[in-house]
């Protein structure tokens, strides 16, 4: 099969196989820059990646630019305005995914929206590039060996994965949400208002999610993210009774990044539904309450 027809995941598995040979026993964090430069030069000498560098890209997380007239190569630019090494690594992998899978369809290159890359919520080729990055940086086999699909990780477990894979905490949690068999919800908030949220498949199937596309909803007053009772590491943990976050007992682990003025909250719900309220009850009492911003 021509590699032009590879899917993003197939590309990631291909690059992972190469990296396992290049860095046996010491695969993580994956050196995306090294793989990208070496693979493009050896496989595609007529239009290789010639540069990977930081630049000012207001509103964008990264970009893939064509070089030369006629074109004889490409450059990856990442937004270097205060982003972490973890975000940078994911962005480089995302743009490398565009280079491998999409450059033939992008003669003018592409600039990638910050939210699409950090929240992994893009569509079409953006979704494909995000999948490529997630598969390359955080292979399922390795991640599942650390946190099996049925296991409930602590925030510390996920912070250890963030360190191992050299990504942001949010990227590590999103990857775990991709495969966990548990019901869990990620909420990213600022000043008590949720900016966005993501549920695991089992949580979504049991209708445990928050709508954040229209406007931010206010987190419950009782939540640790609002109360702000953090330890010296900016972390807080509590088990809330039914009715605080959801109609069932919910375990909350929150970490607050004061420097960035935002909080990352992970909610664990019980494995088995002990009580399944009618949809109307859930909609009226939880989702709508949040979306209205009421804290009754
Ligand atoms: Zn993109």
Provide structural commentary.
The strands form 2 sheets. The protein has a 5-stranded antiparallel beta sheet. Strands 1-3-2-4 form a 4-stranded mixed beta sheet. α1 (8-22) runs parallel beside α5, α2 runs parallel beside α3 (85-102) and α7 (155-165) packs across α8. It has helices at residues 8-22, 32-43, 85-102, 114-119, 125-137, 140-146, 155-165, 169-179, 201-205, 224-227, 279-292; strands at residues 49-55, 60-67, 73-79, 110-113, 184-190, 193-199, 235-240, 250-257, 262-268. The chain is 39% helix and 21% strand. The termini are far apart. By secondary structure, the protein is an alpha+beta fold. It is built from 11 helices and 9 strands. The radius of gyration is 21 Å and the shape is elongated. It folds into 2 domains: 3-137, Arc Repressor Mutant, subunit A (Orthogonal Bundle); 141-268, PAS domain (Beta-Lactamase). Bound molecules: zinc ion.
Would you identify the regions where 5 or more consecutive residues have pLDDT less than 50? 280-296
**How confident is the prediction overall: mean pLDDT?**
89
Can you write the helix and strand succession as a string? Answer: HHEEEHEHHHHHEEHHEEEH
Beta percentage is: 15-25%
Ordered list of secondary-structure elements with their pairings:
Blueprint: H1 8-22, H2 32-43, E1 49-55, E2 60-67, E3 73-79, H3 85-102, E4 110-113, H4 114-119, H5 125-137, H6 140-146, H7 155-165, H8 169-179, E5 184-190, E6 193-199, H9 201-205, H10 224-227, E7 235-240, E8 250-257, E9 262-268, H11 279-292
Parallel strand pairs: 1-3
Antiparallel strand pairs: 2-3, 2-4, 5-6, 5-9, 7-8, 8-9
Helix pairs in contact: 1-5, 2-3, 3-5, 7-8
The chain binds zinc ion.
């Amino acid at each position: 099969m021509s590699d032009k027809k590879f899917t993003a995941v197939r590309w990631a598995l291909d690059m992972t196989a190469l990296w396992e040979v290049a860095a046996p026993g010491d695969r993580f964090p994956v050196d995306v820059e090294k793989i990208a430069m070496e693979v493009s030069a050896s496989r595609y000498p007529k239009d290789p990646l010639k540069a990977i560098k930081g630049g000012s890209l207001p509103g964008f997380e990264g970009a893939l630019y064509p070089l030369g007239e006629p074109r004889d190569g490409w450059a990856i630019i990442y937004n270097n305005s205060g982003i972490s090494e973890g975000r940078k690594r994911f962005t480089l992998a995302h743009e490398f995914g565009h280079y491998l899978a999409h450059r033939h369809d992008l003669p003018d290159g592409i600039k990638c929206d910050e939210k699409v890359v950090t929240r992994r919520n893009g569509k079409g080729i953006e979704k494909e590039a995000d999948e490529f990055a997630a598969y390359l940086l955080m292979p399922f086999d390795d991640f599942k060996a650390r946190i099996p699909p049925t296991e409930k990780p602590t925030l510390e477990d996920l912070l250890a994965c963030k360190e191992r894979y050299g990504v942001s905490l949010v990227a590590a949690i999103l990857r775990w949400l991709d495969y966990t068999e548990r019901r869990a919800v990620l909420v990213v908030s600022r000043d008590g208002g949720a900016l966005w949220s993501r549920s695991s498949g089992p949580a979504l199937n049991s209708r445990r999610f928050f709508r954040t596309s229209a406007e931010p909803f206010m987190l419950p007053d009782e939540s640790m993210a609002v109360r702000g009772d953090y330890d010296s590491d900016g972390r807080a943990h509590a088990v809330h009774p039914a009715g605080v976050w959801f109609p069932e007992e919910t375990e909350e682990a929150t970490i607050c990044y004061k420097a960035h003025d935002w909080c990352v909250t992970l909610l664990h719900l019980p494995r088995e539904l002990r009580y399944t309220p009618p949809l109307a009850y859930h909609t009226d009492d939880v989702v709508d309450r949040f979306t209205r911003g009421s804290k009754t």
